[in-house]
Target: 3-deoxy-D-arabinoheptulosonate-7-phosphate synthase
Amino acid sequence: KLVSREFQSENTIVKIGDYEIGGDEIHVMAGPCSVESRSQILETAHAVKEAGATFLRGGAFKPRTSPYAFQGLEEDGLKLLAEAREETGLLVVTEVVDVRDVELVAHYTDILQIGARNMQNFFLLKEVAKTNKPILLKRGPSATLEEWMMAAEYIMDGGNYQVMFCERGIRTFESYTRNTLDLSMVPALQSLSHLPVIVDPSHGTGRWNLVPAMTKAAVAAGADGILVEVHPQPEKAVSDGKQSLTLANFAAMMEELAVLSQAL
Ligand code: PEP
Ligand code: MN
Model:
């Protein structure tokens, strides 16, 4: 299989602009769960850039559990991400949820995110494979390692070899945390596959106070990057406020991460 170490022994380095994911550097992709307003995304972008993030995350199309919950600003949100990119130099990662929007989202973003709920949306996987954008493939909430690797295989078989895995926690019997972050997937994937592995400690825990420790654990486990939710006012966030770091908490975490990276 294309995704396997047998097919390719050396690590895949995903090149995006001046950045390389899967190489020596650890990339931090930070930002709000949802793009909510111009001031919210610009304030967050400037702060995470200042603290050392290289990518801005933010959802413009949101896959929500309830149909009555905020569904995203759609193209207006993509335009705000593009504006933040322009102002800060951060590159952008945002989710595409529908085959009909792939071209539109690809036009605005640097990385296309496939959300956990769509990991086995094979028609969406085939569609994003036709773009020339790197893909961040989140693990399905109850997907096995094998199923996850086969989802990546769909994208590679479709002609797009720039795929990154993103561990974001799985559903277990534990309900204190929103999901159980399965950090064993980092070395497991790295032994079986040549693709980079990113960890999302925000969805992986559902609790902001657990995020710094799990971020450091992910990096110690060998992750190539972190995807983390940050919001200027988490208590006012329209989605995932409980797992979002404040700008100050994010900056503090980045300092701890720098110390850890030195030690590794
Ligand atoms: C997100 O990144 O905001 C998101 C919806 O993540 P997941 O697909 O992992 O739930
Ligand atoms: Mn979220």
